[in-house]
Amino acid sequence: MDHMNQSDQAREQLPQRPTVSGTPVQKQSCPESNGQSLLPMNSSKEVSRVKVHNEHVSTWAFSDEVRQVLEPRSGEQPNSSRSGAKVSYMICPQNETLSDTSALNLPPKDYIIHLAQIADFHLNTNYLVFDYPAFLDQLKNTPLQSLKQASEVWHVKLLTVIALGRLFLGRGATSFGPPGIREFLQGVNALPSNVVISQEPLMAIETLCLLATYAEAADMHNAAYLFSGQASRIARSCGLDKRRDLSKDLEPTGQDYKQNLWWTICVLDQKRSATIGATVDYQVQVNDSLLSSHRHPGSISSFALQFNLLVANQLTRIMTAFSKHANVGTMSAASINEIIVELVAMQRLGKETGNMPPLCYERSLQTVSRPVATLHLLYYHCVVIATKPILLHLMKLPRNENDHEASTSGSLEPAFAIMRTCVNAACCSLNIMSALREQNLLEIFSFCDLEITFLAALSLVIANAVTPNITESSFIKVAKDVLQDMSHGGNIPATLLRSELDDVLKLMPNLSPLYGRARHSATVRRPTAMVEDGRVLNNAILHVIEIQPAGKQSHYDPSFRPETAPGISMGNQQPRHEAREATTLIHNPSWRPSLPQANNGMPPPPNNLYIHNFDPVEHGFTFDMEGLQWLDNVQ
Question: Cβ(601)–Cβ(590) under 8 Å?
Fold first, then answer.
């Protein structure tokens, strides 16, 4: 967490307000970052282009499922008006100019160092994508005029670091790709064969991780998945996934570095698999057992990487649970219970944020930390993904006169409890995105920022259709403003997703409320509003999951080992057990989701304390740890 407090440095290196008035469309064959083309327009060689089309990416997949429910209700054919709507950047294919190192026109070394520093700050705060000191040493020892004589892998790594530095600066986007697209494509075309790559495994792994990171920002999610998968294969081939004393044929580098690099690969591979709905090439339980010998203090030095890994592991478990019910078509009690199990695990994981620096250092949201905000967003993203099937389930339920009775009689209690958890996570996400936007800390081409903004907004749109007015409309406005800023910076996918959000909003009147209609609703509380207190937003992660088990505790198997990453202490975390009985949930008919109020960062006490098989108690008893007079009454 060395860079966790460098918010001032981040503000200097990140772009200020976007200065581009719209997504630029330049008529050129393949742009440089300064707007020049690699091939002149009168070139005799025709340059074809590859359209980036991502219909299976997580953002579009969720929206497609929502449309399939809404459009038949409106009499429209599903997706009838969306031909070509998902096409974003126009990527130049391979050609001899891209692979010609004489056409590189690299910037001076001082500027390359500046770009590398920017890439290091944005990438290595929460991951270990490349060794920044080693990169600087090799850069100083390599004349840029003689790159042809240098290592081929180093050549690609240099180009990709330059591309990522330009990307995070956020200037120079075109219709052909984000800033740095020229250097990225140069690097892809200069990538050597596997025979050459295998001779420099650590540098090759770093290079592939860098390529995967840029490809994701350029909306090339399949390519990002392939790059991270190749990095995983190389890491396994040289023993990075095994006991450290079994790793051979590696350059003499610190063991902590090797382990951090391996776990970074695991994080990236799992997230990219989830993004495109691919089978995860990473068995969480098998690897936990295989690497149990690595459990010792300091095996992973950065808590940010630890937390990132645990969230990624949890995301894999969630996606695996979804795959088992993919062809069922209806939401069974078993599938709902699996979602509950994973959310309870997420609730325990949220408590680990107490070990990281605060999201905001004061009451003011102006003190928001960009690196910590990213960790919170990753957590909320995982919660939203876990609850997505429940939102679709509630949308698909038939609407009739008995829907209110069903919602209060118990048949929909688990679904509503999960929905309010989704609403809380979505509200927290957009609260954070609003704070980042106000401080010019948006990463214009960050897929993480883009995805959680769209998914959170879409989730709130659905939740407000199912239960009207549970949140203020300001959250949707925040999402639109964030997407608009990203669009103005040249992020074409953000332009498309903002338009998609508008289209879904137009279809929502076709969905009748399932619960909360005027003639049925109980006393309505004030809709959830944006949080303005930084300390409240700090602690919101502890209260976002509102699933309250009210029945007997699940069976505890003393032989069951909790699934955690090697070297990561989860404190008092209780073991998870996959074979849990269905959890009984308490559903309050007058519920409205709410974030913790400004009361020292803690939520106000509930009006009623519900205890299973007992009558409600008017006032819960407070065990005061300062005034200990109550101990006199203990027998």
Answer: no
pLDDT of residue 260: 87
pTM for the full model? Answer: 0.77
Q: Which ranges in 277-369 belong to alpha helices (H)? A: 284-290, 303-324, 333-350
Q: Read off the amino acid at residue 64.
A: D
The residues facing 413 across adjacent strands are none
Report yes or no: 320 and 280 within 8 Å, Cβ to Cβ.
Answer: yes
Confidence (pLDDT) at 279: 81
Which residues have a Cβ under 8 Å from the Cβ of 581 and sit 6 or more positions away?
337, 551, 554, 555
Q: Within 218-302, where are the H helices?
A: 221-237, 255-276, 284-290
Residue 39 zone, left/alpha/beta (φ > 0; ψ -120 to 50; rest): beta
- Which H or E run contains 88? strand 87-91
Question: Torsions phi, psi of 567, nearest 5?
Answer: 85, 5
In DSSP notation, 462-488 reads HHHHHSTTSB-THHHHHHHHHHHHHHH
DSSP secondary structure string for all residues of 148-208: GGS-HHHHHHHHHHHHHHHHHHT---BTTBSTTHHHHHHHHHH---HHHHTTSHHHHHHHH
Instruction: Let me know how long the chain is.
Output: 635
**How many whole angstroms separate alpha carbon 312 and alpha carbon 273?**
10
Are residues 31 and 171 in contact, defined by beta-carbon separation less than 8 angstroms?
no
Confidence at residue 33, expressed as pLDDT on a 0 to 100 scale? 42
Residue partners of 145: CB distance under 8 A and separation at least 6: none
Count H helices and E strands in the chain, helices first.
Answer: 20, 2
Distance CA 129, CA 139 (A): 17
Q: Dihedral (C-alpha) 346, 352, 354, 356: value to the nearest 10 degrees?
A: -110
**Alpha-helical regions (H) of 467-612:** 474-488, 492-507, 534-539
pLDDT in tens, 176-230: 889 999 999 999 999 999 898 989 999 999 999 999 999 999 999 999 999 999 9
Between the CA atoms of 515, 518, 521 and 527, what dihedral angle is there, to the nearest 10 degrees?
A: 80
Closest to 76 measured CA to CA, from 522, 399, 510 = 510
Tokens at residue 57, please?
A: 């990416």
Q: Across-strand partners of 617?
A: 609
pLDDT of res. 521: 40
Each residue's pLDDT tens digit, 171-190: 888 888 899 999 999 999 99
Q: Measured between alpha carbons, how far is 192 from 178 in angstroms, rounded to an integer?
A: 24
Q: What is the DSSP letter of 515?
A: S
CA terminus-to-terminus distance, the chain: 47
Residue 94, both tokens: 């391979």
CA distance 347 to 548: 11
| Helices 413-438/447-466 angle, 10° precision | 140
Amino acid identity, position 623: F
- Could you give phi then psi for residue 464, rounded to 5 degrees? -70, -25
pLDDT at residue 115, rounded to an integer: 97
The tokens 């020049």 sit on which residue? 36
Q: Which residues of the chain are modeled with pLDDT < 70?
A: 1-56, 73-85, 92-104, 147-148, 243-255, 285-302, 325-329, 400-411, 515-526, 548-635
